[in-house]
Amino acid sequence: GATQVPDEPAPAEAYVWVRYAKTACYGECPVYTVEFFTDGKVVYEGKAHVEKLGRHLARLDETRSRALRQRIVAAGFFDLYNRYPAQGVEIADAPSTIVYVRFGDQEKEVRSIVEAPESLEELHAYIESIIDSLKWVPEEGAD
Fold this sequence. Notes:
Blueprint: E1 16-22, E2 31-37, E3 41-48, E4 54-59, H1 62-74, E5 83-84, E6 97-103, E7 106-112, H2 118-133, E8 137-138
Parallel strand pairs: 5-7
Antiparallel strand pairs: 1-2, 1-6, 2-3, 3-4, 4-8, 6-7
């Protein structure tokens, strides 16, 4: 029969390679989490003060996945502090933005409230623009 090439890895289980989340504040801040999977699936979970409540699904094509990956690298994501403000001042009423990234064995989470560097702010804006542009389907209605 066909011989398996030994160093050909089996197709891995899809995992979350980017997670983008907004946490609550005392006001009407949008609260949601978006998870980008390595197989292109994207899961949005709207929790409060958002148009889409509950779980919604979309797909991110290969081209845009690559572009997102390049933006993360360009932002120097793995060299950022794990939190901003870096002094760790807790600001109770401010929402935080949490970005988690996994490239293979490398993973990092950066939580920012204020004083995030421009490269991180731009990455937030870029990820939000992707989220806004995807075609979301409520999970119940998805195949």
